[in-house]
Write a structure and sequence with these properties.
36% helix; 10 helices; 14% strand; two-stranded antiparallel ribbon; single chain; globular; alpha/beta; binds zinc ion; four-stranded parallel sheet
């Protein structure tokens, strides 16, 4: 079962506090105990953001012009968003992919702490990063699907970072998140260091849709932490489309520069 092992109530409470209470609660606490930026350790002014302004400015946002399909930054700054040559030659199974920032410091460090050190305390800082861009709009009929972890990895980590990020992206639409729907049915080795063919082979038949009726005739917003080559989200998209989804939009917090 694709479920948080860190109690979901704890994460939900944390997120609610983050959205609704954070500023005035922190304002009171900061008078007594000045908060420090989780990246550089600088003391923060009371009641403000979680990351200090210089660290926030260090986040390299992904900016137009983008490929209107795969979402990568395009070098030509005069033409506006358009479909890149690669997507023209071979359309990915998803209709669009978008990311917030490039996978580099300080965003990469924060994500690493979340994933590998289980530091859920970095979530408010990640929310600050998400807030750098206009909010991602979710249509009422759309559903959110996090890229799942395999059961043993989930047990080891205690939570699925993609699910936690889905809640962070859409804090008021948690009821639109389909949790046990897309599942990882076999263990796969980490994709890092594999070439394109090996990546696809590694993920072949790794995912399955357990409740196709939940995705049928819907647009799915597929959420993951990092977009590297797109192999994982492509494989997930194929499974969702095969299960009857109309289309898949991909949303990741970070994206590895090519
Ligand atoms: Zn800082
Ligand atoms: Zn493209």
């Amino acid at each position: 079962m694709e479920k948080d092992l860190v109690p979901a109530a704890y994460l939900d409470r944390m997120l609610s506090e983050l959205i609704f209470l954070r500023k005035w609660l922190r304002g009171a606490v900061d008078l007594l105990f000045p908060a420090a930026c989780p990246v550089c350790g600088t003391n923060l002014p009371p009641g403000g953001q979680i990351l200090c302004s210089p660290c926030l400015q260090d986040v390299a946002l992904i900016r137009s012009p983008l490929c209107s399909v795969c979402g990568r930054e395009l070098p030509d700054s005069t033409a506006g968003d358009h479909c890149c040559g690669r997507c023209l030659r071979k359309s990915p199974p998803y209709i669009s992919a978008r990311g917030v920032g490039h996978y580099q410091s300080p965003l990469s460090g924060l994500l690493h702490r979340l994933k590998y050190q289980g530091e859920t305390s970095v979530l408010p800082a990640l929310r600050d990063v998400i807030d750098l861009l206009p909010p991602f709009v979710l249509q009422e009929e759309e559903r959110i699907v996090p890229v799942p972890l395999y059961a043993s990895r989930l047990r080891q980590r205690g939570f699925n970072q993609a699910l936690v990020l889905a809640k962070l992206f859409f804090p008021t639409r948690k009821d639109h998140i389909l949790v046990d729907t897309l599942v990882r049915v076999r263990h796969t080795i980490p994709q890092t260091g594999l070439d394109g063919i090996a990546r696809r082979k590694n993920l072949h038949q790794a995912f399955s849709v357990r409740f196709p009726e939940r995705v049928r005739r819907r647009t799915i917003v597929l959420v993951d932490d990092v977009f590297t080559t797109g192999t994982t989200v492509s494989e997930c998209s194929r499974m969702l489309l095969r299960a009857g989804a109309d289309e898949v939009r991909v949303l990741t917090l970070a994206r590895v520069r090519e």
